[in-house]
Write a structure and sequence with these properties.
- This protein is an alpha+beta fold.
- The protein has 2 domains: 50-212, Jelly Rolls, CATH 2.60.120; 247-390, OmpA-like domain (60s Ribosomal Protein L30, Chain: A, 2-Layer Sandwich).
- 16% of the residues lie in helices and 25% in strands.
- The chain has helices at residues 3-24, 298-310, 330-351, 375-381, and strands at 50-51, 61-63, 79-84, 92-101, 106-114, 120-122, 131-133, 139-145, 153-157, 167-173, 180-188, 199-204, 210-212, 247-248, 278-280, 315-321, 358-362, 383-390.
- The strands form 4 sheets. Strands 2, 3, 5, 10, 12 and 13 form a 6-stranded antiparallel β-sheet that branches.
- A hairpin with an 8-residue loop joins strand 6 and strand 7.
- The radius of gyration is 25 Å and the shape is globular.
- 31% of the residues are buried.
- The model is unreliable at 18-24 and 216-265 (pLDDT under 50).
């Protein structure tokens, strides 16, 4: 073998594994200035972003500090403020991505959204004098295109942003019409059930866009419960759940630990709780696809509030779960479960529980406890749970 041929084989042996590794783990697509960091200023697009609003209207704002907006940033020091107007105009920003989104590929990233309860601004092109509070809820839309303001394909649309607390949204996108080198973030209100009103949405903390596997084609079966081997326990008499009790539930969060097993009518009491234990709020109710707590949920929530009031050293996580009825809209499932968990957490905080003691998280359809093949199974999977995070602080 000639020296040149030997050199080629050596180079191939050295660099081919690196090539395979690079193919397996594709670098994420990066945003320029993903946290909208800049000097706070009204009508000024943050560095790295391009104003795509209509001519004659002001540009988006670098908040806080303008129009009486005082909310602290979710990440860093500043964030993006977008408004919609009763004149049927709205604000948007765009930028060129570090690498194009490819057609028929699936991508995910997250961002933080909120609404300010104060956004006082004068109206342009209007006979109304003085300032108006741009406080109505609106949506966030994300477009793909091949120019700064090219809205070629709608890739994502959020629910109405009604909450004033920063909430993380998981964005899942899959371009169908082409490859897109540009992305647009747009405040929006105009759907068949919404009217043009003055509103705002705040945006912060965009994460890198990562390519993910599309699917799954169907919902996975629930994970089997781990059964510990040992002597058969003595039979115990069966009792019906009593009103107002919080039934315990298990979820295999980690394969390293066995699920916590408890009787169906076990109360949440100091003598029974331990770190990691999960309780199902069986009598907390919501209307279909909504997250407003129904009045008949009060007794169940009161029981939880009483327990937390009597045990101030315990911290909990409220977890929201859905079934697969909204498949394949995973984004909506995650948002709905998160908003339901947040609704319960907010109820507790408004009653007097310290906010630092109540976390919340939406799990979408990731953790079914029954097969999603029957209406009864789907009803059980759509649930709210409480997990003990810490005891004794």
């Amino acid at each position: 073998m000639s020296p040149d041929c030997k050199l080629k084989w050596i180079l191939m042996l050295v660099f081919f594994p690196l090539f395979l590794f690079g193919q397996a783990k594709e670098a994420p697509i990066l945003f320029n200035n993903p946290s909208f960091e800049d000097l706070p200023k009204a009508g000024q697009t943050p560095s790295g972003w391009y104003d795509c609003g209509p001519q004659g209207e002001s540009a988006p704002d670098i908040q806080p500090g303008s129009f009486e907006v005082t909310k602290k940033a979710s990440n860093g020091n500043t964030y993006l403020g977008l408004v919609v107007r009763a004149t049927e105009t709205w604000e948007s920003v765009a930028q060129r991505l570090s690498r194009p989104l490819e057609a028929n590929q699936c991508y995910e990233f997250s961002l933080d959204l909120a609404r300010s309860d104060i956004y006082m601004s004068p109206l342009s092109n209007s006979n109304i004098t003085g300032k108006v509070n741009f406080v109505s809820p609106c949506k966030l839309r994300i477009w793909g295109g091949n120019g700064y303001c090219d809205r070629y394909e709608l890739l994502y649309e959020s629910q109405l942003i009604t909450h004033m607390r920063w909430l993380t949204y998981n964005v899942r996108m899959s371009p169908k019409k082409g490859n897109y080198a540009y992305i647009i973030l747009e405040a929006y209100y105009k759907t068949p059930i919404l009217f043009a009103e003055n509103g705002n949405v705040l945006v912060d903390n965009l994460t890198p866009i990562r390519k993910v596997v599309c699917g799954p084609e169907k919902m996975p079966d629930p994970k089997p419960k781990v059964v510990e081997k040992g002597p058969d326990p003595k039979p115990t008499p069966q009792t019906k759940p009593s009103p107002g009790k919080i039934a315990a539930n298990t979820r295999p969060d980690s394969p390293k630990t066995n699920p916590v097993v408890a009787t169906a009518d076990e109360k949440m009491e100091r003598t029974t709780v331990r770190k990691g234990k999960i309780y199902r709020l069986e009598k907390v109710y919501f209307d279909s696809n909504k997250f407003d707590i129904k009045p008949e949920s009060e007794p169940e929530l009161d029981a939880l509030f009483k327990f937390l009031s009597e045990n101030p050293d315990i911290m909990v996580e409220v977890g929201g779960h859905t079934n697969n009825k909204m498949w394949p809209n995973e984004t909506f499932a995650n948002e709905l479960s998160t908003n339901r968990a947040k609704a319960v957490a907010d109820w507790l905080v408004n009653k007097g529980i310290e906010a630092a003691r109540v976390q919340y998280k939406g799990y979408g359809w990731k953790y079914p406890i029954e097969p999603n093949t029957t209406e009864a199974g789907k009803k059980k999977n759509q649930r709210v749970e409480v997990k003990i995070l810490t005891i004794n602080g």
